[in-house]
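Hi P.,

Sorry for the delay on this. The queue was packed all week, but I finally got your sequence through. Input first:
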Amino acid sequence: MTIDRRAFLTALGVGGAMAVTGAAAAGTTRGAGPVFGGRPVPGDPGRRVSVAVVEPPDWSALKARLDGRLLLPQDQGYGVARLGYNELYDDQLPAAVARCTSAADVQSCLDAARGHGVPITARSGGHSYLGYSVPDGGLVMDLRPMAQVRVQPDGTVQVGAGARLIEVYAALAQAGRLMPAGSCPTVGVGGLALGGGIGVLTRKYGLTCDRLVSAEVVTADARVLTASECSEPDLYWALRGGGGGNFGVVTRFTFSTEPAPALTVFSLRFPAAATASVIGAWQQWIADAPPELWSNCVVSGGTPPTCRVGGCHVGTADGLNPLLDRLIAAASTQPTSRSVQAKSYLDAMKYMAGCANDTIAQCHPTFEGGRLPRSSFVAVSRVLPAPLDAQRMVQLMAGRTGMDLLLDSMGGAVARLAPDATAFPHRSALATAQIYASTTPAGQAEATAAVDAVRDGLEALGATGAYVNYIDANLPDWGTAYYGGNLTRLKAVSQQYDPDEVFSFPQSVARA
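Then the structure:
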């Protein structure tokens, strides 16, 4: 008999079905208290084998307990609330989506769902590259209602875990402050910060996780803890680069900030024939650049591949232009276009986000408004420890139309901390490399094979690490690639705070 999955989840939502534990439950049923039933053996109806079944969560009781809203498959609004950013995972149907408004709502969710054989996950912005924040048949704790951003008199900022980056930037700018974070305006601060947080101010001000002063965390057993240098120090260490979805649910962050100076953004485009010389020059140029300069080098696949260089400078155009002249001289090629623009902090963040001419509201359209921009893509990563062979990098991208290799500079403030000072290990890296390709469900397998080939080609050139925020299903030895020598300590922290693997998923720290 064929079971319709949507019908099954609808039945599960009203509490009338039994859930069979297994892969759909993220591989864990610890604490579930299973009841053993039987199922027929195919071809031998007289014989039955035992399988563990558990009662599904009492969704009605959870709905009554929440201050926020619980959406089940039959509820109006579920069809939108269940969606993540990557359209490739739209077939994943969570059993319930809880719109959490407080740490108490997260506690209620964990108390209701823990031990019932369903995967449990928190969702901040929903940008998980592999759709891990929308588990099939699981409970999504949607933190988006917790999006408050409050700048404190001491210069710190308290940020709800559901806030999107452009909202954080807007609030900080109003107070004349800044903090380093990513460029995509709809990314949630939670996932970004927990994985490290690379952005356009990284080389001057460090990673987002380096700015974390404290975090309010709901652990797997529904305790609310404060993790800081003086309170739960092991958890605090792990939250700074150990990856989202591990250890507990962060509901509020406190970050240190800096006064917001004037910034200058820039963009250079080069002729295709110069791609190799530009990549080679860029790698050495950024290695020697002052920390006030952050830059990327984007190589677009094609016949032949092309490249462009952009970035952000903490300072004026007068200070930036000689640095750009140095890159152009090293590349021995004049750019086909050169743009240098002075910006305020907020305007620079909007420019880097691709919404320079939009309002803040237009930079972060909402699910509720039905305007949230979404994408269908595959992406993987590597970490460059030093300059790589530029000509061979170009060869990797030859003919790969629709694919981009994005090199984001590291160094500067990132390298001032030791690899084990936080959970983020790639302190001495020259740059991160993201290999990104738009695709459709029909073309997903082909696109995945293509980005994997470029990733493996970079590894052969010496780029062996990877960035956990660009999580990659096919990455060999992924635990070591993401966390390096910090993996053993991270696993110990995971065992301490989540011994039953309540927050387990295919690439959780506990499974590395």
